[in-house]
Amino acid sequence: MQGLMQTWPLTVDKILDHAKNWHTDREIVSRSVEGPMVRTTWGEVHTRAKRLSNALKGLGIQKGDRVATLAWNTARHIEAWYGIMGMGAVCHTLNPRLFAEQLCYIVNHAEDQVIFTDLTFLPILLEHRAKMPSVKHVIVMTDEAHMKNVAFPGALCFETLVAEHSADCVWGDFDENTPAALCYTSGTTGNPKGVLYTHRSNFIHTLVTMGRDVMGIAAADTVLPVVPMFHANAWGLAFSCAAIGAKLVNPGQKLDGASIYELLESESVTFSAAVPTVWQMLLTHMRENNLALSTLQRVVIGGSAVPEALVRAFRDDYGVSVTHAWGMTETSPLGTLASPTGKTAKLSAEEQLRFTLKQGRPPIGIELKLVDDEGNRLPHDGVTFGKLMVRGAFVVGEYFKGDGGEILDDEGYFDTGDVATIDPDGFMQITDRAKDVIKSGGEWISTIEIENIAVGHPKAELAAVIGAAHPKWDERPVLLVKLMPGQTGTKEEFLAFLEGKIAKWWTPDDVVFVDDIPLGATGKIDKKLIRLRMADYVLPTARPAGVGAKETA
Ligand code: AMP
Known about the structure:
Elements: H1 13-22, E1 27-31, E2 37-41, H2 42-58, E3 66-70, H3 75-86, E4 90-93, H4 100-110, E5 114-117, H5 122-128, E6 137-140, H6 144-147, E7 156-157, H7 158-164, E8 179-184, E9 194-198, H8 199-209, E10 222-225, H9 237-244, E11 247-250, H10 257-266, E12 271-274, H11 276-288, E13 298-301, H12 308-318, E14 321-327, E15 334-337, H13 349-356, E16 366-371, E17 386-392, E18 414-422, E19 428-433, E20 438-440, E21 443-445, H14 447-454, E22 460-470, E23 474-483, H15 491-498, E24 510-513, H16 527-533
Helix pairs in contact: 1-2, 1-9, 2-3, 2-7, 8-9, 10-11
The structure holds adenosine monophosphate (AMP).
């Protein structure tokens, strides 16, 4: 027997339809790539996205074809995004921070037929176009005036296409399991792999993210997603802002502290989302210039672990509440959030912090388990480390074109590659990426935990911990510190700062001061590169007597 309710396929075009029908005048404000601020509305974006669907059809794009975007967060990017998905093509967001070789690999693997690009990325496309044979058209996201300076043979102008095509176009009308979007993982191990989201998975993710314990945005909010649309769908905000009818503020390419501060204040932003490094830059800018935040109420921080000092600064100095989130491209991306439970909400602010700093609990739609190397379930006691496994309504089932083979275990769980604990209150805490965790004398040391304490040292700008070979313990931790400009520091003062905050045997065997701690394409510390730079490094505790330190980073 079947239920007797209406069939209403969960396709994402309905999200923008809803925004047009019920929030038509709600604003979308963008810092354009050309410079000036541009103001539009959900209603206008809807019409222009439909025109773009017709333009794509005119270029021969059909359902299921991949159409890429190489772009910052702007209203034009939102229009391209819905224009592609609405007609049933697949919106492939390219991360412009990747190396050109990786970009070419991804474009070829996806067989992208069209690339929408900002002016910023024309040189790189021009240089590598010959290596992207599937690409038939390049659409430059600009107007005719700026097109005059574009020296790219055959390139099409976004605004001309919008002007030339009608908005009369049927959207949706296909199965909810049709692919909507494609996003590649950052490829820290081997080639990047494609995660092919369905309309249904994105729609459900959108509904889930709107919950109060998740992103919790409302129609009256003004939302600034600093997190790029090419980083796991701007954590779903490109959908949820339309679904709820929030005002959307797009930062374009200017993600520095001063530019973000200016937008937060000039547009009266109430909610924002970004990785920790962006917030560090904002705090530095505000402290240096003695600035306050007048409207911001809440920020969601994820992508890497949130340092305690960051949460305290937002809470105590600026009155902004922080929600720590964990997720990955493979989970659409929201997997857990450290929102309070009935029990933890009753605790003092100081006691709550212990939970806020964890990566948190899964919302409906996500299931988690912790297992050992043999796949046996581990206890949720807050101390036992295990592999974090996830399954759910918006979690990857297999990678695009079957890359990586079978990726689910017997119970249908995906191995996140993260090592974590889960406490008796259900708060998950990431210890490390499995490949970064330090194994010292058979026990595990969390590099993330040490880093987050070390970066709270007033002289530290960034901190990273890696394992270095040790003859007795296999591996021991080394702390790398990038100091604030103009500062000097000693190994002893950093070790003293850690004392009492971590187990004694976790204390790094060495502290190395470096000029640079490299960040990868999604703003995370690039440990692979650090390990390469430190390849010749030998721990003082592993050196033959009398040999001095060699600082290679
Ligand atoms: P990506 O697919 O690029 O978003 O990367 C996902 C990975 O980022 C996860 O598997 C984690 O290793 C890491 N990550 C994301 N959020 C957090 C967080 N809040 N704390 C620690 N690591 C995180």
